[in-house]
Amino acid sequence: xxxxxxxQIERAKSIHHxxxxxxxxxxxxxxxxxxxxxVTSGNGAPVPRRSLGEKSEHGQIDIPRxxxxxxxxxxxxxxxxxxxxxRLLRLVQMLDTFNIEVENNLDTISIATSYDEISxxxxxxxxxxxxxxxxxxxxxxxxESLRTIYRLGARSLTLTHFPRNDLGDGSGADSxxxxxxxGKEVVVEMNKLGMIVDISHLNPMGFWDVxxxxxxxxxxxxxxxxxxxxxxxxxxxxxxxxxxxxGGVINLSFxxxxxxxxxxxxxxxxxxKVTILDWLDHLxxxxxxxxxxxxxxxSDLDGGCGFPGLDDITKFPDLTQGMVYRGYSDQDxxxxxxxxxxxxxxxxxx
Length: 350
Ligand SMILES: [Zn+2]
What we know:
3-stranded parallel beta sheet; binds zinc ion
């Protein structure tokens, strides 16, 4: 894939193997849950239901492929579509499905709720699965729902999805509004609980409110650089710098539409315009802005993302080769692969 010497390829292998590799966002549970709507594949066809334990030809993440990709810790998003009349019930259904899948595969995967549990699980040769909730809709406007989803194991909340909700504006429905009072209350409570605030999807004004309010570092679990691709989902340079100043991490997604202008979701023809080099350009840009301590990987695989060359989780070692190719040091590659996110987990997930 890259013009690397044999030694460089060996070096990449050994860095990848010795690093704790973290992927901060996927939508795999939507492929596993037994009730619709399923996510659709790139060409709009519904995705067949799968299980976590079986290596499938469909979708992009399952346990066998995660092991092949040398990925150690995954944040599994529970995304609740606003179509549901009870979003909290839908979240309960997703959590139930996810727990059953994990229980069926306890020899290879474990749910982890703290930094220590993540470290121990990975040390024992298993995948550490962290539960996250994507979009504040399932809270249904009540702070007690937040505390309860924390007790059920969720350790991060993406405040909004694309639309506006009762926490604030998603970037897809940006009216220039601040976080609502409830949104602000949620951020304060998340800090108290030890839950990671995820600002991916949030509108700029809401983002700056989080910067003002949160006393902890925050993550963008799946966002890219606006300087290279103008999509409203991406973060501009000031936002990336502000996150870094607070100790946070921007995790770069494999969403082709967030990597290059003119590439659409669900359009396989335009996906071909994006290569792993373009992803590496986003990495280089973010590193140029804030150094190597504030950048990570948040694939958004199984969420309609990926492109030829980076189309499932088995391809993670190619990112490591790419970083060797672009001249990153062993230590910096280890940070980007997972060390930076682990630093945030250590601070918040106690
Ligand atoms: Zn998302």
